[in-house]
Amino acid sequence: MSVDILSEVVRKKGYLGAAVGEEQVLLDMEHGVYIGLNPVGSDIWRRIEQPKVVAALCEELRAAYDAEAGVLEADVLGFLDRLLRQDMIELRAAADS
Questions:
Q1: What 8-state DSSP symbol labels residue 65?
Q2: What is the pLDDT along the chain (97 residues), one digit of tens a residue?
Q3: Alpha-carbon Rg of the chain, whole angstroms?
Q4: Closest of 44, 70, 5, 68 to residue 35, by C-alpha
Q5: Which candidate, 37, 88, 80, places its Cα nearest to that of 55?
Q6: SS3 48
Q7: Distance CA 46, CA 62 (A)
Q8: CB 1 within 8 A of CB 85
C-alpha cells in the first residue's frame, strides 16, 4: 500500500521528539533508532499529529511555502511513503474515513 492524495495519514505513537534548531530528531522507542527530519519534514510531522487527508495537508503546505503545487504534492507523497515504509505513520483510504 502506498500513500495517495486522498489517503488519510496520522503519525504513530511511540516517538520521542526534540527540536534541534529548525529540525526535529525523533527516537523510535520500540526499535531504539534515531530519525532526523529537516525543517519541512518536521513541519509535516507536526501537522499529522491528528489524522489528516493528504490533499488538505498539501493545501496547508502550499499556504506556508512558496512551491509549485505539482512539485509539492510529489515531494509530500514521497516523504509520506518513506514514513509509511518505516512504520512511522498509519494510513487509511479516504473511503474509510
A1: S
A2: 889 999 999 999 888 889 888 889 998 888 888 899 999 999 999 999 999 999 999 999 999 998 999 999 999 999 999 999 988 999 976 654 4
A3: 13
A4: 44
A5: 80
A6: coil
A7: 16
A8: no
